[in-house]
Specification:
Length: 244
């Protein structure tokens, strides 16, 4: 506001000086001084009006700050802590909660089972036995002799090859090393898993190390009658009773 007021004073002073030296005659300096005085007067009036409008701002700001402080101040009710929850079992949900039963393992003597249908090694025989066991809720694993691939396809087949052919996970198929018998690996796997062994072999040579081969509910025999697969249901039923 100071600058418009100073301009107004200077304009009036210049106009007065022009009037004193030139008289009442309208001269160029007097005209310029008059216009400057009018402009300065307008700026002074505008500054005064703008200052009045702006004056309440500090009051409004103070009121806003006061409202914020009141809102942030916790009420006595808000300061009361919530009651602590008691620890304990949660209420049970509606409906029955079924626990997943552990898998029922079974170990297949692959090199024996593939000869079940007509004493001819067939991959289809293995697939049918695997499907039948899975259909009864078992999780089969298969162990082969090292020469099993040559009997089925005239070439060596490893774990991954058989797993792909039988559509099984790779960790459920094992081909033992060359010159190594598969029998002790089959029996050891069955013992570790608490599983039955699907085979028509009696494992008499391994009865000393694995006396369970003489038990009635350990070896699951099978074969084909009139072109249809059969498995020893008595042993499978006993396995179900043990698992239950």
């Amino acid at each position: 506001m100071r600058i418009p007021f100073v301009l107004l004073l200077l304009s009036l002073a210049c106009g007065g000086a022009s009037y004193a030296f030139g008289g009442p005659t309208l001269t160029l300096p007097m005209a310029v001084s008059g216009l400057s005085a009018i402009a300065a007067f307008y700026l002074v009036i505008k500054a005064c009006l703008w200052g009045r409008k702006k004056a309440p701002a500090p009051v409004q700001e103070a009121q806003t700050i006061a409202r914020v402080r009141v809102a942030q101040t916790p009420t006595p009710e808000a300061q009361i802590p919530a009651p602590a929850r008691k620890k304990g079992p949660r209420p049970s949900r509606r409906g029955a909660i079924w626990r997943r039963s552990p898998p029922r393992h079974v170990v297949i003597d692959g090199s024996n089972v593939m000869h079940w249908n007509g004493e001819v090694p067939r991959l289809t025989t293995l697939k049918e036995v695997v499907a039948a066991l899975i259909g009864q809720g078992y999780q089969p694993g298969i162990v082969f002799d090292a020469n099993a691939g040559y009997k089925l396809g005239d070439r060596y087949l490893d774990d991954r090859d058989f797993a792909k052919l039988l559509n099984l996970p790779g960790d459920r198929v094992l081909v033992v090393g060359k010159g190594e018998p598969a029998d002790p690996t089959i029996l050891a796997a069955a013992r570790d898993l608490g599983a039955k062994v699907v085979t028509n072999d009696r494992f008499r040579d391994w009865a000393t190390d694995f006396p369970e081969v003489a038990e009635n509910n350990f070896l699951v025999h099978g074969g084909y009658r009139d072109g249809k697969l059969w498995l020893e249901e008595r042993v499978l039923t006993q396995a179900d009773a043990v698992a239950a």
